[in-house]
Automatic annotation (TrEMBL):
It comes from Sphaerotilus microaerophilus. Keywords: Cell membrane, Membrane, Transmembrane, Transmembrane helix. PANTHER family: INNER MEMBRANE PROTEIN DEDA-RELATED (PTHR30353), TRANSMEMBRANE PROTEIN (PTHR30353:SF0). Its main location: membrane. It is found in: Cell membrane. This is VTT domain-containing protein. It comes from the Bacteria. The chain crosses the membrane at residues 28-49, 56-82, 122-144, 156-177, 189-206. It is a multi-pass membrane protein.
Length: 222
């Protein structure tokens, strides 16, 4: 429980924690940030790390000269791309082992084939959009690997999504993060960065399930 409370405090007050780290350890902040972004995107069991809010606060800190903007952009972009590649590779490694199970309690080949087809057709857009959705961005590359999305296609959209995510949010923090109103409402903004994309993801999943149920009902009624 103490660990969860500490993690929640770090997520909601990431600006204070990063400021304290910069003051105490200086350039080591870049290694810490690289590690956090890599782990959040590269380890499927770590979806709760503060990716969006972290990027925004980094941009704000760059805006007041506490960190270097271009170095931050380059390192965080590299961490985001490498993390997704790691997660995808884990999924690819697990996938062939799962294939051996055929239909069982734990594996449904029909569902797998549908996932593979979906990722080959729409997976690129999914990988890019998932970058901006907490939790979803951690699982999307893993599922792409399990679904055997081709590495070449995945890498293209991984790099594209990583550039848009890191570049967009860090730049937003750089331009707007030090505006007095933004600074005084940063905790609310952080909550919005967590909750709003999550609600959108849940709504999208609900619509997809509803559409699938309607199609199934229509097929059975024929």
């Amino acid at each position: 429980m103490d660990l969860l409370l500490s993690l929640l405090d770090f997520v909601l007050h990431v600006d204070r924690h990063l400021m304290a780290f910069v003051q105490a350890y200086g350039p080591w902040i870049y290694a810490l940030l690289f590690l956090i972004i890599f782990v959040e995107t590269g380890v499927v069991v770590m979806p709760f790390l503060p990716g969006d809010s972290l990027l925004f606060v980094v941009g704000a800190m760059c805006g007041v000269g506490l960190m270097d903007l271009w170095l931050s952009l380059g390192l965080l972009f590299a961490a985001a791309v490498a993390g997704n590649q790691s997660n995808y590779t884990i999924g690819r490694w697990i996938g062939p082992k799962v294939f051996q199970w055929e239909d069982s309690r734990w594996f449904n080949r029909r569902a797998f084939n549908q996932a593979h087809e979906f990722y080959e057709r729409y997976g690129g857009v999914t990988i890019v959009i998932a970058r901006f959705m907490p939790f979803v961005r951690t699982f999307a590359p893993f599922v792409a690997g399990v679904a055997q999305m081709t590495r070449r296609k995945f890498t293209f959209f991984d790099v594209t999504g990583g550039a848009l995510w890191v570049g967009g949010i860090v730049t937003a923090g750089y331009l707007f993060g030090n505006i007095p109103w933004v600074k005084s409402n940063l905790e609310k903004i952080i909550w919005a960065l967590i909750v709003v994309p999550g609600l959108l993801a849940m709504f999208g999943a609900w619509r997809a399930r509803r559409k699938e149920a309607q199609q199934l009902a229509a097929a059975q009624g024929r």
